[in-house]
Design brief:
Two copies of one chain form a homodimer. Chain A contains 15 helices and 17 strands. Chain A is of the alpha/beta class and about 425 residues long. In chain A, helix 2 (about 20-30) packs parallel to helix 7 (about 150-165), helix 3 crosses helix 4 and helix 10 runs parallel beside helix 15 (about 385-405). At the A-B interface, helix 1, helix 2, strand 2, helix 3 and helix 11 of A face helix 1, helix 2, strand 2, helix 3 and helix 11 of B.
């Protein structure tokens, strides 16, 4: 069975909008054990979309079309599908009244309440444009709004169930994920290549800055294959042990969150070159105020001195990007807060600020548990400013995870 | 003339990777005044990609294929194109030596140095997989690596020039952009609807949280249309005057950066619910250390008291999310730094933490110039935690821009 996602909109073809709807749909389909075979993007152009849908009817069994259901001139999806499937559109007073009840007497009601005479109508509980589904020549055609919040609500509440009911997968996709922090892709790759893996099992390695995600998947009619998948998962887990974390979407901050939320331990940071990115990853998680006290973004040397009490001598003799400076920053954090764990970061994210001794990508990182020795060291990263910042924050989080979960240090190996 | 971007990879169809390569290519093509007509995503599957390229040869003039040039079993692009175009592949010692010189004796050299016997070869200056271009039946087929940094380097240095040389656009796309901060989409939409706009001019409105981007574009054989485009641009600019800012990619922090970098004025923040996002937007810009001193992320009430000197009475009687609290936070920032401008934010980003009086999305925001009255008020936002945080940071930056650029306040209107 083949699924095609068709996303419609000039903004997608001009690079103005990133096609996150396609990413969301593929991801959600995979969670429901469906594989996506094609993604296509077409402009707001009647003829092009018409040709695109016809092509899709030739090659896919389930066609999910997002966008073009709104009230503006550019929104053609309903008309095109109506022509193609020979299902007339009709104004429905009950739908108009429902929209009016929720959004007042808006200008687009008539257009939005004009719907297909047959087929399935999905109520839009977030916005105004209803969605639709049809079985046509043994295939499913599903129309969903392009606004991400409306699409998500409608897909999860209606469209996915429609697909599951009418097109249960003959072969389901089974997948397990192993998240590994701090280790380089090459090391993980080498270990996986040494495994004996049957042909029906696919292993994917997805490196990011500071962590690697390994997926082990297989398509199968039943779940017996899960045993093989889990065997491989366990072998990988045995190889990398305390570098492995469990987290939704592979985010290591979620692993830290899950541990700390149940402990009476707090964290606080002192950031220089990461400039708030480290904190923002933690505070993105609802409930983080239970363990996150705050961060001192001491971007200027003056603030490093006046707030964190880094000594004038250290800054003059060793510089702000030095082991001594970050150790004093850690001490400053412990003095100013009652955090159990502290992180301090100071580095050169570039493109300016480099010296011969300290090129762009030189990052000093310190992590400590109150009362214990400070684990501090120097990273040598490369890439753009944004890469270096992101990478540094992820290494800091990975090290914090290992400190919290296993009381292991990053630098003293 | 039609351009199709074909991106290859299972990771794109599983939602594991966002298709940023397609976004980058469309955006860069548009800057070079080319329109993209189609984007297609195919799996790492020989037959599917073959069919996809054949389809593309039927409907497009320029076909850009990214991905599948690497050395693994899943990388089929070279073989498929070789079969299709009947151009044999051949090992080239000079290319192998060049790769070896740059990357050492890596395992994939033989595969990467096996290239097409005819056609154009683009050197990969970032990685190992060369790119290729062919003129075939009057159409261009261009193969580029899927690694974003390699793709970008090669596209800008070679592939775009190839397209411009062999397929100069008959009609160029001319576009001007107006960036507007703080105003709601509806207000901008109404003003634009009142304009007289010729049919050949397309106006796009792209709302984000805290700002709106308006594009005015037209396709034309020559640049006489620019006069019409600029006339409309000026009309919009006249309507919204001091809400308009100039910035690459529409980022308001870039507008702030450009102003402050030339002034002897500094900024510093006190953040609670935005948790570092406000600071991270500023520190993402290289050179921001010239004017950004730092930020106090006082997530806990204890830190608000001990560091920023927010009074116990205020926290008890008014709460941390109150005008009084953020005013005291501003005073704390001015006391601890020599910033010219300060921002303080405290709010309820949700999903927890709400009270009857202060529901999720209640945000207190204060902006001040040292010595002047503090501009403070309450925002009522809605959406997810990440939306509320992002929106708050953008409103803060918009208000800071208007304060710095025009000495205007956000709340005292």
């Amino acid at each position: 069975m083949k699924i095609e996602i068709i996303t419609v909109g000039n903004e997608l073809l001009s690079g103005k909008t990133i096609n996150l709807n396609a990413t969301y749909l593929s991801k959600t389909l995979l969670k429901a054990q469906y594989e996506t075979s094609y993604v296509s993007v077409y402009p707001d152009d009647k003829k092009e979309l018409q040709k695109g849908i016809k092509l899709s009817l030739d090659r896919a069994n389930v066609i999910i079309i997002t966008g073009g259901l709104g009230p503006t001139l550019d929104d053609n999806t309903k008309e095109i599908v109506s022509d193609l499937l020979k299902i007339p559109l009709k104004y429905r007073k009950d739908i108009a009244l429902d929209i009016e009840k929720r959004f007042g007497c808006i200008a687009s009601i008539e257009e939005q309440a004009t719907v297909f005479q047959t087929g399935y109508i999905f109520k839009n509980e977030v916005g105004t444009a209803p969605g639709f589904a049809f079985i046509y020549s043994g295939k499913a055609i599903i129309l969903l709004p392009g606004v991400p919040s409306e699409l998500k609500d409608m897909f999860e509440k209606h469209a996915l169930l429609f697909i599951q009911k009418h097109f249960p997968p003959l072969e389901k996709v089974y997948q397990e994920i192993v998240n590994i922090c701090l280790l380089p892709e090459l090391k993980i790759d080498a270990s996986i290549k040494a495994l004996q893996v049957d042909e029906d099992i696919k292993i994917g390695i997805y490196p990011a800055h500071g962590f690697v995600q390994v997926t082990i998947s297989a398509k199968s009619k039943d779940q017996t294959v899960l045993k093989k998948i889990n065997h491989i998962k366990n072998q990988i887990a045995a190889d990398f042990q305390d570098y492995i974390y469990k987290a939704e979407d592979g985010k290591i901050e979620c692993a830290i969150h899950d541990i700390l939320i149940n402990r009476d331990e707090k964290i606080a940071f002192a950031e220089s070159c990461t400039g708030g990115v480290l904190s923002s990853k933690i505070t993105a998680l609802g409930g983080s105020s239970k363990y996150f006290l705050g961060s001192f973004i001491t971007y200027s040397n003056d603030l490093k001195k006046s707030v964190l009490n880094v000594s004038e001598t250290t800054l003059k003799e060793k510089g702000a990007v030095s082991i001594q400076a970050i150790k004093e920053m850690i001490e400053g954090v412990f003095k100013l807060t009652d955090a159990t764990y502290a992180i301090a970061i100071s580095g050169i994210a570039g493109p300016g600020g480099a010296t011969l001794e300290k090129p762009v990508g030189t990052i000093c990182l310190a992590i400590a548990k109150r009362g214990d020795d400070i684990d501090a060291g120097i990273l040598h990263l490369n890439g753009s400013r944004s890469t270096i910042i992101e990478w540094t924050a992820n290494i800091a989080l990975g090290s914090l995870f290992r400190k919290i979960a296993h009381n292991l240090t990053y630098f003293d190996k």
